[in-house]
Recover the amino acids of this structure.
């Protein structure tokens, strides 16, 4: 099937369309319903009647945007009318929800009169926290937006005008920097003089470009003062009329630094690109076919052509989804009265800054594993980059507060963390640990220091103030890789082959001479195996923690730390723990990586260690020893082990958190079963520490929860070691390394208390 057939199937699959309404409060009991509707709903109604701003407290108004269109200028389709535009408006709602967790009602108005559209939207003001105007033709769109901004007290934003302006503006900031040109000196030519082109030209002036340096062309050629005087152009185009001779687009482009295409495909030739100034900036944004193709523009010049289009199959896509969800997120969260120019500029500058940062692995994978690094082919962040939310929305919120558009003041540092939590519970939980790590950073040795991911992780760890990373490996290779990645930092490197590490070899020999290692072999291991080198480094106190395992199987990566560092004095067995996060629940799963067939003493030890780990995440543990039996319902050696472990823990005065077992998994996590059938249990709430009876069940269980249950996983985190060591999984992403480095730092902080 082609794209059209696939899309029709996508939209008609039951339920039809792309959006639905869901409830956010429980509606399971009679009391729930009496609170949601009559008689309980009267209380918030009366509060709002007394103070209308309480609508933001008691209703969804503060997270609800109206997407309003009459379907007169649908991208690529033209005037198709209100009803036919509904799939587009539903799609807009999907993007709001997916990227910024904003709810949307799409409203299609079968009306062409701007006055009636304005009056209709004004009447709906009590419903919404903001209005996104969409696909309304020019020049009516200008009038509608201007009047609504004046006449209603919530933000109004016409994305067709301002979205392209803001996103291409962020690209212009970076492109000009790469080309070594100042914004105020840029000679800019526009092809197209519709709503988007005029808004974009105005926005470039807000960024620092000179209005007199902007030449705008419509279908009749250059917009000149002579044409304006003859009444050939409307009032909106007239602002950019220049006192120059009449001519066509080719004349305008000669010697220009920047071409901005918001018109039709195929109207720019290679000769026109060749006529531009050195290192030209070409934004050919007509869709689906740009004014000139990407390859054509690049091949037209021997120098650098910095190229952007509206297409996703080429670098530097100017995609409005980088703007509107996050602009509204920031505006809604400070209860802004408008989206003003300062807020738009703040968005563009935040996006430009983000493009200069190292790109997460998940984003790279989403785009076919092609390198994404700041430069001519990467001047705008990708829409799927999760960091856009907590970079742009706070910048917009701050601009709203600074400019007087905000009705609520917020703590921007706390706000960024709140936004990050919207991306998933695991981010919220990791933020607890990251913040703890930053209060007292420790030194973390990174084995496999020549690995690109380790180097990128070291950069982020150092940049964020999480830890003091030491990369173990060849110093020249590490520094060369860091430079090739464009990472602006000087890595701390421990090079086993170039440093004076004789004492490390001697120490390894002392520890393992009766375990089959000779003096010569100890020297070779220190020089060639970064796992042994890092383990000795930590054992000797030259680093506080170790991360390894990125390119090794888990058992082989774990072996050197166990041989050199070992378990804590009061612990006989290490264990691997995963933190699994769901939408409204967090569980720690153990043991998933180390102990194959633990007895009751090992199970008890693993439970203690996992409970301690939970508290590092500020979670009070409630532990369940799992089995296929409930409290003696099956009696055999397999069920007795978790039962005896639970009793050992219950009898231990040093265990200060509730523990029970053996119990089935659903008993442990379902409140009705736990409190109803097994009300005698020591757990008064569902368990958040799940201890599996053996490695096989633990590994299977956590993977099923992750893959079928939709859980996000952090880990594995190694507990029970004498000093902090964490073994990564092969193929882990940079964010996983950074997360485990933070856990290791908090471990080290605990060790020193």
């Amino acid at each position: 099937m082609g794209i059209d057939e696939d899309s029709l199937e996508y939209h008609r699959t039951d339920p039809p369309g792309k959006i639905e309404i869901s409830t956010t409060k429980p509606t399971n009991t009679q009391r729930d319903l009496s609170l949601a509707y009559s008689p309980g709903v009267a209380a918030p109604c009366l509060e709002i009647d007394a103070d209308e701003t309480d609508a933001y407290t008691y209703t969804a108004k503060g997270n609800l945007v109206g997407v309003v269109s009459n379907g007169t200028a649908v991208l690529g389709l033209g005037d198709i009318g209100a009803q036919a535009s509904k799939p587009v408006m539903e799609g807009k709602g999907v993007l709001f929800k997916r990227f910024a967790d904003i709810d949307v009602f799409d409203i299609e108005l079968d009306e062409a009169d701007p006055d009636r559209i304005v009056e209709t939207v004004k009447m709906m003001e009590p419903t919404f926290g903001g209005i996104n105007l969409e696909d309304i033709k020019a020049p009516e769109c200008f009038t509608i937006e201007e009047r609504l901004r004046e006449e209603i007290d919530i933000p109004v934003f016409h994305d067709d005008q301002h979205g392209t302006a803001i996103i291409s503006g962020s690209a212009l900031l970076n492109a000009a920097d790469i080309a070594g040109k100042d914004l105020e000196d840029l000679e800019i030519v526009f092809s197209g003089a519709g709503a988007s082109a005029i808004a974009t030209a105005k926005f470039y002036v807000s960024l620092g470009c000179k209005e007199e340096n902007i030449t705008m062309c419509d279908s009749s050629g250059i917009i000149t003062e002579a044409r304006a005087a003859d009444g050939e152009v409307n009032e909106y185009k007239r602002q950019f009329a220049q006192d120059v001779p009449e001519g066509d687009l080719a004349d305008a482009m000669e010697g220009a630094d920047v071409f901005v295409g918001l018109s039709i495909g195929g109207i720019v030739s290679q000769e026109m690109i060749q006529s531009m100034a050195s290192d030209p900036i070409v934004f050919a944004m007509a869709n689906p076919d740009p004014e000139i193709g990407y390859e054509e523009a690049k091949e037209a010049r021997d120098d650098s052509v910095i190229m952007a289009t509206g297409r996703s199959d080429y670098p530097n896509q100017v995609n409005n989804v980088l703007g509107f969800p996050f602009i509204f997120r920031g505006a809604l969260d400070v209860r802004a009265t408008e989206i003003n120019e300062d807020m738009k500029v703040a968005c563009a500058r935040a996006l430009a800054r983000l493009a200069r940062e190292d790109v997460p692995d998940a984003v790279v994978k989403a785009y076919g594993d092609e390198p994404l690094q700041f430069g001519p082919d990467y001047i705008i962040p990708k829409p799927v980059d999760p960091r856009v939310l907590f970079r742009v929305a706070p910048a917009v919120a701050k601009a709203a507060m600074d400019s007087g558009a905000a009705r609520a003041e917020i703590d921007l540092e706390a706000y960024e963390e709140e936004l990050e939590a919207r991306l998933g519970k695991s981010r919220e939980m990791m933020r607890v640990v990251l913040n703890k790590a930053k209060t007292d950073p420790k030194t973390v040795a990174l084995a496999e220091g020549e690995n690109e991911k380790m180097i990128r992780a070291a950069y982020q760890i150092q940049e964020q103030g999480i830890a003091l990373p030491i990369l173990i490996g060849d110093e020249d290779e590490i520094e060369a890789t860091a430079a090739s990645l464009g990472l602006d930092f000087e890595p701390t490197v421990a090079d086993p082959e170039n440093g004076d590490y004789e004492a490390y070899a001697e120490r390894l020999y002392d520890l393992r001479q009766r375990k089959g290692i000779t003096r010569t072999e100890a020297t070779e291991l220190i020089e060639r195996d970064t796992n042994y080198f890092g383990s000795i480094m930590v054992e000797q106190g030259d680093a506080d923690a170790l991360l390894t395992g990125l390119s090794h199987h888990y058992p082989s990566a774990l072996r050197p730390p166990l041989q050199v560092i070992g378990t804590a004095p009061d612990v006989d067995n290490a264990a691997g723990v995963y933190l699994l996060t769901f939408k409204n629940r967090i569980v720690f799963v153990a043991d998933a990586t180390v102990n194959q067939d633990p007895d009751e003493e090992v199970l008890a030890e693993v439970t203690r260690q996992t409970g301690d780990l939970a508290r590092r995440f500020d979670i009070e543990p409630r532990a369940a020893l799992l089995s296929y039996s409930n409290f003696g319902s099956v009696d055999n050696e397999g069920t007795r082990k978790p039962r005896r472990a639970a009793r050992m823990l219950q009898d231990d005065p040093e265990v200060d958190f509730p523990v029970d077992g053996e119990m089935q998994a659903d008993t442990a996590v379902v409140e009705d079963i736990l409190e109803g059938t097994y009300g005698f249990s020591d757990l008064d709430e569902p368990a958040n520490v799940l201890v599996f009876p053996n490695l096989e069940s633990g590994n299977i269980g956590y993977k099923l929860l992750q893959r079928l249950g939709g859980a996000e996983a952090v880990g594995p985190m190694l507990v029970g070691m004498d000093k902090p060591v964490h073994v990564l999984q092969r193929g882990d992403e940079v964010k996983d390394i950074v997360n485990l480095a933070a856990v290791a730092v908090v471990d080290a902080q605990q060790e020193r208390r």
The chain has a mean pLDDT of 90. The CA atoms of residues 574 and 720 lie 4 Å apart.
